[in-house]
Amino acid sequence: MDASQYKDYVLVLLFIKYVSDKYAGIPYAPITIPAGAGFKDMVALKGKSDIGDQINKKIIQPLASANKLADMPDFNDAAKLGSGKEMVDRLTNLIAIFEDKRLDFSKNRAEGDDILGDAYEYLMRHFATESGKSKGQFYTPAEVSRIIAQILNIRQAKTGPYTTVYDPTCGSGSLLLKVADEAGTAVTLYGQEKDSATSGLARMNMILHNNPTALIHQGNTLTDPKYKDGEALKSFDYVVANPPFSDKRWSTGLDPLHDPFDRFKSFGTPPAKQGDFAYLLHIIRSLKSTGKGACILPHGVLFRGNAEAEIRRNLVRKGYIKGIIGLPANLFYGTGIPACIVVVDKQGASVRKGIFLIDASQGFMKDGPKNRLRAQDLHKIVDVFNRQIELTRYSRMVSIDEIEKNDFNLNLPRYIDSQTPEDRQDIEAHLRGGIPVADVDALDAYWAVCPTLRETLCRPNRPGYVDLAVEKSAIKTAIYDHPEFAAFMAGMNKHFDIWRENSAMTLKALATGFHPKDVIAEISEGLLAHYAGKPLINQYDVYQHLMDYWAAAMQDDCYAIAADGWKAETYRVTETDKKGKEKDKGWACDLVPKPLIVARYFAGDQATLDEMIASKESLTNQLNAVEEEHSGEEGVFAEMEKVTLANVRARLKELAREGGALSEDEEGVLTEYLSLCTQEGLLGKQIAEAEKKLDAAAYAKYRELTEADVKTLVIDDKWLATLDRDIHGEMDRISQGLTRRLRELAQRYDIPLPAVTLRVAEFEAKVNGHLERMGFAWS
């Protein structure tokens, strides 16, 4: 079954399991579980010949009716699930997956952190990825949703249950939920979705994310808007949307020239085959006079002509567009085209003198077939937009006058050149040698930190040009050994140590029940601020190291600590073979892995073991050398199919039985091989014994650990040590960048053109001389 179809069944089962565990039998719960319509009742249907029909009648229909959940998937659809025994087996096996005892949602171990909601969103993203069709439109990438939620500044506003947030094309509701989460307090959510199955997902998503009172209606927003005040559209405080790109059927069932809601009257009618502005104008009409909104649209809306140019002109003149954020291409599911976020703000529209533009198209990472915004990309966009920071090749405030001079064309490259400048070639330097001073001046960020380093690395050649003052191979050493650079590195190391000490205090104060998301928000913002304005190092690159490590390991550790406290509990690792037998593969501890215990408490034992392993490797290398030297056609091992200790011994016994005389060389080789093999085997046994002893000592040590010991191991030895290493790597890249650039310039202009011509002539003369001696001559 295609991912766009099986997501309905998997997510609905997840939903039923969750609401059954959490709300069954609880009076006044936000979700009603009718008698006989819970997950346990679904389990009772496993193996029944009419399981699909019974799930529909006994589970889905009562649950949907009691909670106004329409458009649930059909569990008796033979076209999708097969018929007869095939359907019975498929549904029985699917239900069995959700019977796993570990899937008990009756207790949320980390209150305030929506673990299940996040898991649901994770599945949604992967379903959208695997679908590979326009069905991917049901999910807006979480990073883009977070950007929209944060640039609306809803957290800074005085919000409450009376605050309304609306998404006219809500899909699965992820964008709405991100805005609600950013608000920090309860707000009222409204959504409408054209696709019936997807609107059902949105309703379930609201419940799973603890927003059971959110209103989600199914229907076409443009032709049949569900939220109205009388005959007019209802207005909201915030409106967000990710509508279908360039919808060619937007006007089906609607007469745009006589729109009953006057959405196009003041701006112009969108073209029949391009529905982007139809959705944007619906958003503007749905906003209160002080409302704010954001809409994801393809870049075409910024520059297309004719009717769309007129709409764009009217929008700019009315001052409704506060900003535009250009996003990387291939970010959204179902399409590879680049999109942008159009930010609308009616408050202050009458006095707006410009539009703030950001071109963030270059900041992303590859994630399989798609691109994805990193944590640092998201944070930079939000910081720059909210603070209206103008950065070269990234962002600027463009006046309405300048936009008018460009005939209201808002295409971002007209105003921001985000491309990296081309590295110019200096003709004179190629002809006469020397490195252009202009190229050296371009490295002014380094010279500002280390003023005399430039004189150490470069010496004058002629006006406007310099030469390297050190050998190309010695550039890196000269940089590292320079006192100013060494002082800079020491200062940056000390700078990290200050953050490390402060963060260690914060982390060691954590107690059971804390909220991991609050913790990472506090320490990551602290790290970002700590490196703000520091020379040579990008604060967002440092921030990304922390966020990467959070996703890879620290997040799981924090959830475990929040649930169970600072406990380093070991467990046995087993592996089941093909016959179903379990095999013991040793032990492990997720929070405090064995290497941390060994490094802190048994470093001497580990050093001794490492020496033994190194000695064994040396013996192995010697054995390989002996074998290679004497394995030729006339070598001692020539007649052996494989050189092993057993074969060498057998060869010696065979010769002894036959009374054969060994040559001195052959006896020496075989004896040497036997001696090395014996030593290697003995050392191997010693290593195995030492490893077993160290493993037992480390395992026993866990029982002796105090809470303070665990905190030291996890915070100092694991978390902060890893970040220390990563951020020191960032510092190393600073020197490597300067080294690489100077070496590149030196190599580029190392040999001037006359010298190249002279060397070519010398080589040509040599070749002609060789040809003449071989009996050839050029005519």
Automatic annotation (TrEMBL):
Enzyme class, first EC level, given as a word: transferase
InterPro entries: D12N6_MeTrfase_N, DNA_Adenine_Mtase, DNA_methylase_A-5, DNA_methylase_N6_adenine_CS, Restrct_endonuc_T1M, SAM-dependent_MTases_sf, T1MK-like_N_sf
The keyword Transferase belongs to this UniProt entry's keyword annotation: yes
Keywords: Coiled coil, Methyltransferase, Restriction system, S-adenosyl-L-methionine, Transferase
Keyword S-adenosyl-L-methionine: yes
Enzyme nomenclature, EC number: 2.1.1.72
Coiled-coil spans in chain: 609-658
Organism superkingdom: Bacteria
Annotated ranges, domain DNA methylase adenine-specific: 113-422
Family: Belongs to the N(4)/N(6)-methyltransferase family.
Name of the protein this chain belongs to: site-specific DNA-methyltransferase (adenine-specific)
Species in which this protein is naturally found: Paludisphaera borealis
